[in-house]
Amino acid sequence: MAFGKYIKELRESKGLFLREVGAALELDNAFISKVENEERLLPRKHLENLAEFMNVPLDKLLVLWLSDKIRTLIEDEELGKQALKIVLKELSS
């Protein structure tokens, strides 16, 4: 699941408004909306506050955030998947 989609579902399941999440993170509502709609990636420095505010494990947010960051980096690269396979192989050895 994408980070933004997860955040949106989590926010809605808790009955929270965009403005409440934005206020907790000291970010604009429009920016939070863009994060939820996968138009922007939340800066990493806000993840800890978001995890605390939403009462979810930071590790869960970090994994989803990192996966989005990696996908964004390689999705438009013709050889992105091949590069990712090399990295995965190097990390597993």
From TrEMBL:
Q: Name one GO molecular function term.
A: DNA binding
Xref: SUPFAM superfamilies: lambda repressor-like DNA-binding domains
| Classification via SMART domains | HTH_XRE
Q: Which InterPro entries match?
A: Cro/C1-type_HTH, Lambda_DNA-bd_dom_sf
Q: Which residues form the HTH cro/C1-type domain?
A: 7-61
Recorded superkingdom: Bacteria
Name recorded for this polypeptide: Helix-turn-helix domain protein
